[in-house]
Design brief:
- With 319 residues, this protein is α/β, with parallel strands linked by helices.
- The chain folds into 2 domains: 1-34, no CATH class; 35-318, Metallo-beta-lactamase, Chain A, CATH 3.60.15.
- It is built from 10 helices and 14 strands.
- The chain has helices at residues 18-23, 83-96, 111-114, 117-124, 132-147, 149-154, 227-240, 255-278, 283-289, 302-318; strands at residues 2-5, 31-34, 37-41, 44-48, 64-69, 74-77, 101-105, 127-131, 168-170, 174-179, 182-188, 197-201, 206-208, 244-246.
- The protein has a 7-stranded mixed β-sheet. A 5-stranded mixed β-sheet has the order 10-11-12-13-14, with no helix packed on it. Strands 1-2 form a two-stranded antiparallel sheet.
- Helix 9 (283-289) runs antiparallel to helix 10.
- The chain is globular and about 55 Å long.
- The termini are far apart.
- Mean pLDDT is 92; it is low at 6-28.
- Bound molecules: zinc ion.
- Zinc ion (ZN) is lined by residues 63, 110, 112, 211, 248-249.
């Protein structure tokens, strides 16, 4: 991860000219997270964003992205939260390949998965691909995203961001795609957000999980999340047993770390919290009983999320 001062980098055609930057007062320098592509396998790269919350400095790019060379153009997995960050993703892609960005796959509904779609459709004539249900949920959440925490964090860096949706919409819960020489198996997860999905590249044995898997930081259960769906989708991922996982957030990992940071936590939420809810144990007692869970205290954001997650998992299983 790199944080650079804002004037050190020209931001594409829409950015400031180098001459103007040279004249910019030093005091105007603002820290800017600049995404970089790291190699995962031959022709496959990941952008691993910071694991902190959305901030002005990371311009809402606190998540991971995929870059796949297909032989007939680049497939970008998820498009970032804004037009501003889409330009930075575009530059990161250009650092590793000269191939044009031809396809965008949206693995989810959270802001950082898709609000850069419009930029790539406009600037690259890229085809955006997503499940029908992903598009429906993006439409349902778009206003919340654009007027909520994202805007609070990124302020003027939200300028020029317009919600735009998939050109190719996949029915159902599973699909296979052939893009150039690359084959992908897609599957809905409906866990962190309804309409979320994951992608598996069988030849490369790599899974891009979207917001199903969090490594290094604790996953968050929102009121609209489904712990039950997360648990079930995780079992499918475990059965695939990919050699390499690019999680939604956190480092590129093998299944051992994914199991420790996410799989075991879904297990805990279902078998400890869910079971207690079904047994009608009082909510406050369950939250107190599980406030300290040493198996998960190494995860960033434990303090901010864990008790809330227990609470929301309880409510889901109580129904
Ligand atoms: Zn996310």
């Amino acid at each position: 991860m790199t944080i650079r001062a804002w004037p050190s980098r020209r931001l594409g055609a829409g950015g400031l000219a180098a001459g103007a930057l040279a004249l910019a007062p030093v005091a105007a320098a603002e820290a800017l997270y600049v995404p970089e592509a790291e190699p995962v396998a031959d022709g496959v790269y990941a952008i691993i964003g910071p694991t902190d919350a959305r901030t002005y400095e990371n311009h809402g790019m606190n998540a991971n992205y995929g870059i796949v060379e297909t032989g007939e153009g680049v497939l970008l997995i998820d498009s970032g939260p804004t037009a501003f960050s889409a330009e930075l993703i575009e530059e990161a892609v250009a650092e590793v390949t000269e191939a044009p960005i031809r396809w965008i796959l949206n693995l989810g509904v959270q802001d950082h998965r898709w609000l850069g779609n419009d930029y790539f459709q406009r600037e690259h004539d890229a085809e955006v691909i997503a499940f029908e249900q992903t598009v429906r949920q993006q439409q349902a959440f778009a206003t919340d995203h654009l007027e909520g925490r994202l805007k609070e964090a990124v302020q003027d860096r939200l300028a020029g961001t317009e919600p735009a949706y998939a050109d190719r919409r996949l029915p159902g819960e599973e699909a296979t795609l052939a893009l150039g020489e690359v084959r992908l198996e897609l599957q809905r997860t409906d866990a962190h957000f309804p309409g979320d999905a994951m992608a598996y590249l069988p030849e490369e044995d790599i899974a891009f999980t979207g917001d199903l898997v969090y490594v290094d930081r604790m996953l968050g259960v929102h009121p609209w999340s489904s712990v039950q769906n997360g648990y079930e989708a995780y079992q499918e991922l475990a059965a695939l047993d990919p050699e390499t996982v690019v999680p939604g957030h956190g480092r590129v990992s093998g299944m051992d770390r994914v199991e420790r940071d996410t799989g075991a936590y879904y297990e805990f939420l279902v078998h400890e919290v869910g079971a207690a809810a079904e047994d009608l144990a009082p909510l406050q007692e369950v939250v107190e009983r599980h406030r300290e869970e040493p198996a998960f205290q190494h995860l960033e954001h434990y303090e901010g999320w864990h008790a809330t997650n227990v609470n929301r998992a309880y409510l889901e299983f109580q129904q």
